[in-house]
Amino acid sequence: MVSSPSTPFHLHTLTVAGFFASASGAPCTLAQNSSLHEAMAVNTSAACASSINATTTTPFYTTLYLDNYYGVCQPPCAVDLANYTSRVPDCDEYLSVRTTVSVLNDYCTNMSSPTTNGGVCTEADTLLVGLAMSAPVWANCSNIIPAATLSMLSPSTPAQYQTYCSTPTCVANTQAVAHRLPNCTFDHNHPTANVRASHAQRFSCAPAPIGAPCTLADANAMSVLGNTPLWVNCSSAIGLPSSTTINSFVAYVMAKLSTNTPQTRAFCRSPCVGIAMALGSMAPACSLTTMPYAVLVANEKLITLDIAIQSLERTSGAVASAAAMRNMLCPATPAPTTPRVNPTPTPTPTPTPTSTPLPTKSMAPTKRMVAIGTWLLVALVAMLAD
Predict the structure, then answer these.
(1) CA–CA separation, 158 vs 210, rounded Å?
(2) 36-66 pLDDT, tens per residue?
(3) What burial class does residue 47 get, using C-beta atoms within 10 Å of its C-beta: 0-12 exposed, 13-18 middle, 19+ buried?
(4) Which of 103, 229, 240, 371 is the most exposed place for a label (fewest CB within 10 A)?
(5) List of residues 6+ apart from 88 with CB closer than 8 A
(6) What angle do CA 280, 282, 283 make, to 5 degrees?
């Protein structure tokens, strides 16, 4: 008699959760033993092997114990699963094997009709997502980013992003999974709780439309922008090191512009104002609040500024939003004015009474005055002669 393989953990969990296959209650016959022998000897078909990253020399039944139940339920493996199922006998000794196969077939049926209208995820949807993400990763992906499963594959650095998105075969494989995932959500209050949006956030190399949940491409663009060196004509104007990044620049702006300091005034006279205002157009157009948590934390102040700029542009238009942003960054300070003092009224002068002038004598010299003057002059000359 052939010893029956143990039930895989995930399928065992499913069985306990409510799936059950009944047995005949009769001992296995020689023919039934032979049937199981034959089932276990059949190798995996080429189509199925390619789909689940196996080989054609691998017996199909062993693939059921590699935690790749998601792959086994895909169309390329449908014939393999049907042939194996038909040969597993329904008798006492192989009850666990029969139960495992029954559970797997039930699960594959549930997988074939996932939620497609964006509604709340069902238990079958949840299971499908979990198994899809735990499936072994393809060789053309693991060769560029070391990962055992799809959940571990997501590129997390700009270098990994460039490598991943420039490998079409790997991108095609991850996108194929996206098309088979349910279109459902775990929480309607969070856009990225939608299964497909979450998948795009981790694997899509295309930017999202305006206001849509951000993709992997958007997250990478934001990370690159935050770590871009600040332009020299700005950093030199406000005394920042040439190594200053956009993230550090935005943090500096938010810290300095709260007070009227020489640094603030230097900023408002420099090209930095235009750079700060342009950051909104440099940022991705997606809903920035849906960025992955790590990206949100690393670029917190930049994202806050970009959200403010983009919100103004979408509600007020480019011209009005530019004026509003300039006023927010550098509020206009009114010129100081001297308080107006009302002049003291000048009292009306009291009129001075006019007096009648007294008659005056003529100032012309008389004969007597001339004679006296002549005598004094002669006397003075005589004194000087002595």
Answers:
(1) 22
(2) 889 999 999 999 998 887 889 989 988 876 6
(3) middle
(4) 371
(5) 35, 36, 39, 94, 97, 98, 101
(6) 70
